[in-house]
């Protein structure tokens, strides 16, 4: 059985215990994650306590974790293990999720006559066409619909199709042909 650690932990040796440095003065007042079981370091956010290393004592639970509740109250609890925050890999930002533009979102960002720089996802063929118009069904809610079509150059495309098959260049960066889905 192998020990699975949180992906931010570089090495198991970065986790401090009574046997290897709970009395290390350089760790004092550092923020980090605390636990009583080494297995709790599988998920720092859910199974460890975050706080400041405030004090040590000669005991198997040697790390005093001071937790600031930001309302003038604090909790102090001793733990067996501690990993300083500055020894962790940075948190990965969650990948942005995109969805197709609605007609209203497209209208808010583009005007007829704009030159649109876009490319086919595979094979990568870059295109620059003038946005020349749009069409949507009578009674369609342009705030919600992605089923309308827009004309780039002489070709008309459904917004859903553009999202699936093309990328849009904005400020020198390629992104999905849509908006961030929040």
Plain-language structure description:
With about 180 residues, the chain is mainly beta. The protein has three helices and 13 strands, in the order E-H-E-E-E-E-E-H-E-E-E-E-H-E-E-E. It has helices at about 45, 105-110, 160-165; strands spanning about 30-35, 50-55, 65-70, 75-80, 80-85, 100, 115-120, 125-135, 150, 155-160, 165-170, 175, 180. The protein has a six-stranded antiparallel sheet with strand order 10-9-8-7-11-12, with helices on one face. Strands 4-3-2-1-5 form a five-stranded antiparallel sheet. A two-stranded antiparallel ribbon has the order 6-13. A hairpin with a 4-residue loop joins strand 7 and strand 8. The longest helix is centred in the middle third of the chain and has 7 residues, at about 105-110. The protein is elongated and about 80 Å long.
Summarize the structure.
20% of the residues are buried.
How far do the termini sit from each other?
A: 39 Å
Which regions have little confidence, pLDDT < 50, spanning 5+ residues?
none
Question: What is the number of helices?
Answer: 3
**Overall geometry:** elongated
Strand order of the largest sheet: 10-9-8-7-11-12
| β-sheet strand percentage | 35-45%
Helix fraction, binned, reads under 10%
- Largest β sheet strand count, sense and barrel closure: 6 strands, antiparallel
Overall mean pLDDT: 88
Radius of gyration: 27 Å
The helix-strand sequence is EHEEEEEHEEEEHEEE
Name the structural class: mainly beta
Instruction: Let me know the number of strands.
Output: 13
List keywords for this structure.
182 residues; five-stranded antiparallel sheet; 10% helix; 38% strand
């Amino acid at each position: 059985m192998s020990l699975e650690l949180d992906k931010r932990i570089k090495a198991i040796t970065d986790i401090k215990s009574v046997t290897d440095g709970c009395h290390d003065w350089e760790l004092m007042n550092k923020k980090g994650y605390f636990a009583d079981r080494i297995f709790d370091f599988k998920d720092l956010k859910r199974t460890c306590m975050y706080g400041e290393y405030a004090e040590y004592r000669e005991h198997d639970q040697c790390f005093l974790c001071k937790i600031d509740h930001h309302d003038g109250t604090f909790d102090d609890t001793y733990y067996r293990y501690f990993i300083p925050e500055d020894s962790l890999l940075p948190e990965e930002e969650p990948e942005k999720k995109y969805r197709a533009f609605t007609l209203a979102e497209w209208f808010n960002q583009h005007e007829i006559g704009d030159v649109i720089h876009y490319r086919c996802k595979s094979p990568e063929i870059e295109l620059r066409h003038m946005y020349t118009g749009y069409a949507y069904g009578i009674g369609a809610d342009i705030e919600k619909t992605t089923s309308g079509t827009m004309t780039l150059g002489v070709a008309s495309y459904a917004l859903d199709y553009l999202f699936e098959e093309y990328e849009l260049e904005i400020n020198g960066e390629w992104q999905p042909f849509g908006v961030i889905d929040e």
